[in-house]
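User: structure tokens for Acetyl-coenzyme A synthetase, please.
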Amino acid sequence: MSDIYPVDPDFAAHARIDRAAYARDYQASVRDPDAFWAQAAQRLDWFRAPTRVRDVSFALEDFRIRWFDDGELNASVNCLDRQLATRGDKTALLWEADDPGTAPKHVSYRELHARVCRLGNALRALGVEKGDRVTIYLPMIVEAAVAMLACARIGAVHSVVFGGFAPNSIADRVSDCASKLIITADEGLRGGRKVPLKANVDAALKLPGTDTVETVLVVRHTDATVDMQMPRDRWYDAVVDPQPAECEPERMNAEDPLFILYTSGSTGKPKGVLHTTGGYLLYASYTHEAVFDLREDDVYWCTADVGWVTGHSYIVYGPLANGATSLMFEGVPNYPDFSRFWQVIDRHKVTIFYTAPTAIRALMREGEGPVKATSRASLRLLGSVGEPINPEAWRWYYEVVGDSRCPIVDTWWQTETGGILISPLPGAIDLKPGSATLPFYGVQPALVDANGQLLEGATEGNLVITDSWPGQMRTVYGDHQRFIDTYFKAYPGMYFTGDGCRRDEDGYYWITGRVDDVINVSGHRIGTAEVESALVSHPKVAEAAVVGFPHDIKGQGIYAYVTLVAGEAESDALLKELVAHVRKEIGPIASPDFLQWAPGLPKTRSGKIMRRILRKIAENAPDQLGDTSTLADPSVVDSLVKHRHGA
Ligand code: PRX
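Assistant: Done. Predicted tokens:
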């Protein structure tokens, strides 16, 4: 039996949604989704209100996902213009620098509006038109949000690339969507270390397939000297500052693209997940308001990076569409010391704090001291996202960080889902440590077995969603068939999440992790195939197989098995070189934690690598290898077990 933390009656008394309201509205949302979402759509400002709500079929022969498809709106108008009348002087973005000695910035809705308009005008002047793609490769600075919203204003489709990615990864993402313009900065700053963003862009643009880029706008951030290649490279301030502070917003159809965000899958290169304007914005704003029980005077802080979907939906679009104050943090949890998060909370009187289990676990390791040195009295609600949170970390978060006062919302969702699908509503749903609990309005989760049979009651299976919700991705950019094949083929008529999940006797959902070849490292998705192809691109590597293994802090770590080209000698120097090679090819987040030489890999007679066996060896569970008799050469397994890292 698991622990239950019942809804706090004091919290519920002031909450937007209580138990009865959730039960009633959830039922209504699945009984008559058209009526429910038509009503919900009124939370947005439309140039032309939609008369149609949903046009959806997950059937392969008749596939379509369309929401509000005769409506017209602009996302930046919803995030900015409509706030001006009542919230013009309210802080929209509260920026906290990497270095606590640098003064924080308070950017009001009025100022943010002006800055977005200036950049929108500048982009238009540089020839960016509705539908063009713009790549954003920026650190966590205000310009990142300005850039996203300026694209939205003129109907350009932004593709934010996480600042930790290496030139190759930037180039892949730029060429896949044929970006016309890149917005970057001289350098980023994280934990006191400089990140050479502009130099990375320069290196990326030397790679094939990137010649669609006409302009690189460079924000001056650290004032480092960088190479400027004229006329391609332009200083952001020189181009943007002279522009007028009003910019006519583009009228976008609800189904016009808002952004592309690349994410790793189990095969091939990262997919360009495409989200559209109306459904996405509605879903991001509604979930943000309901799950975080948002109030007008909240200071809301999500610690994600804008390079990931959490930053899109819950730093920028959701909070700003709701007129909230959203804190944007440039730094890392352990700089200058392990108390930084809690100091920032005290400094800005943060009321809602949303972070990832990996950060909690890393901070937990440092003990209570750095937390207890701070007050945190302003906090009223905590959130978790990105990976399963182990009950031990949950309790530490609840008791030590939240002083047993603040509910925790464990929010399960994905880049593909646009917003939170399964999560407690803090005034309505009792908490169980480690469970994302129950679905949001309109979301219909189900569990299926390997054959696609729906499973009833308390059980475990693969998590599917049986009907659409407005924030659902609409396609893989440039490859609609890949979208259908990836998500709708395994279990016909249903969206397959790629996650395994348990449902308990109360109907609560417990996500157990990915069931495909995706590794979740510190809440970041890494495809094993990407790491393998980076390894194999090294001239001395013949073959590589990569699997995840349980890691105390990161959730999962990366374990690589490498077979060298005949005649190449195994050495510690080469091992280090290969790890560095992966960092250089993809970025530091994909660095293997362990690399093991594998003279041979376990393969079936048809040549397929048996990853199940490699996973068990990496997990140090050689007694669970299962049947190895179908292998072409069963003896390779013994040798791998014997030479396992640390064995
Ligand atoms: O495995 C699930 C895990 O993260 C995956 C989605 O990763 P990404 O698209 O990068 O988005 C992360 C931020 C939404 C999911 O398939 N995941 C995310 N949130 C949770 C989670 N696993 C368990 N509990 C969560 N709260």
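User: Anything notable?

Assistant: The radius of gyration is 24 Å.
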